[in-house]
Design a protein that fits this description.
With 159 residues, the chain is an all-alpha fold. Helices cover 53% and strands 3% of the residues. Strands 1-2 form a two-stranded antiparallel sheet.
Length: 159
């Protein structure tokens, strides 16, 4: 990681072949999908004009540092997501996984211990310690623990 810029794996000049095809059957979902694709096209077009680059680039080192820091501490701007803390763990861990970056064992253990503190004695995980457990943070916590994939992580899940 020497600060190099690498092209996004999911964005290349032939991305039009990856766009949604509704096979002539329009639905609410297909209409929304096409709206999202047009919106993304506009953003990419503006990006290309502003940066005079053929396609967006991924600043891997900056993303990695931001994500790594986020597993240890999030700024006050994230306070509104207090009931979504297992989701934050999942999103950060999944992003690191997509970047093919290893998670330090001490950090992985800290995440396991944090998620354990979100687990309810009656089952499932809550959005944060002392909150009520429900399906959404349980899904996020289990996924985060599976990404970590250590014995400690699997042992957190009360199976």
């Amino acid at each position: 990681m020497d600060g190099e810029q690498t092209p996004l794996r999911c964005s290349h000049e032939c991305h039009c072949v990856e766009m949604f095809v509704d096979d002539g059957v329009e639905s609410v979902t297909s209409v929304e999908q096409k709206k999202v694709e047009r919106s993304i096209e506009e953003v990419i077009s503006v990006y290309k004009q502003i940066h005079n680059l053929p396609q967006p680039t991924l600043l891997r080192e900056q993303h990695y540092q931001y994500l790594k820091k986020g597993l240890r501490h999030l700024s006050d701007a994230y306070e509104c997501l207090d009931a979504s803390r297992p989701w934050l763990c999942f999103w950060i861990l999944h992003s690191l996984e997509l970047l093919e970056e290893a998670i330090a064992p001490a950090v992985a253990s800290d995440v396991c211990q944090f998620l354990l503190s979100c687990q309810s004695p009656t089952g499932g995980f809550a959005g944060g310690p002392g909150q009520h457990a429900h399906l959404a943070p349980t899904y996020a916590a289990v996924n985060a623990l599976c990404i970590i994939g250590t014995e400690e992580a699997y042992n957190v899940i009360d199976r």
